[in-house]
Amino acid sequence: MSLSLGLKCRWHREDCAERRCDRVSILFTVQEGSQLAIFNFSVIRAFQVIFSWWAMIHILRKIFDNSLIEFTSREAENILNGTSERNLCARWAPLLEKIATEGGLASYYADVEYNRKQDGKVKTILDEEWQVVSITCDLILHSRGNVVESDNLIAIEMKRSEHPEEEKRKDRMRLRAMTKSSYDGVWSNDGKVHPEHVCGYSLGYYVELVAAARLFLVEEYQKGELVNRFQHRF
Question: Counting beta carbons within 10 angstroms of the beta carbon of residue 165, is it exposed (0 to 12), middle (13 to 18) or buried (19 or more)?
Fold first, then answer.
């Protein structure tokens, strides 16, 4: 008896209560004999990659969520007093780094308006018209280039609700660019060498403060796309 060998993965996205969940289904057939071992290895490897990625995303979400909770708990008065985003991110950064370290990411740093990449060069992205522009993100969690395979983890942009819509649009565009794995394959984040332009952040967060409602509106970006919205009250 002989059966054909095949492996097909399909990703399904479903909205959960507060998070966007990924579910993978694997359709397969097996062939009798020596190819069975190859098939088993392929399935195991596929699940290793999938669960490794999903586990990291889960950890990073927890780090972001817990740091936001602690930040708003400690800095509520400062947040509501009209303090600048730069000051607020500077107060948030040490909490983000501490919680990341407690979560097993001791090689990573939370930096405010960090504008340098490998060899001290200015960080750049490609904008919507494929023009090279310098970039300074409000708050990032990264290894400062020391962990090439997973250098960039979380990028955060903060705005108060009263800011102009064009400024908010630029922040969102920046997060889309920073969370792409490549620029149409031209500059990639392959885990082997640093990309020419900034990309490859696992998660990007746009957080908009509505002070009158004691509320942060949060948008989560992955792979250049908006994947979730939620609110955090404090």
Answer: exposed
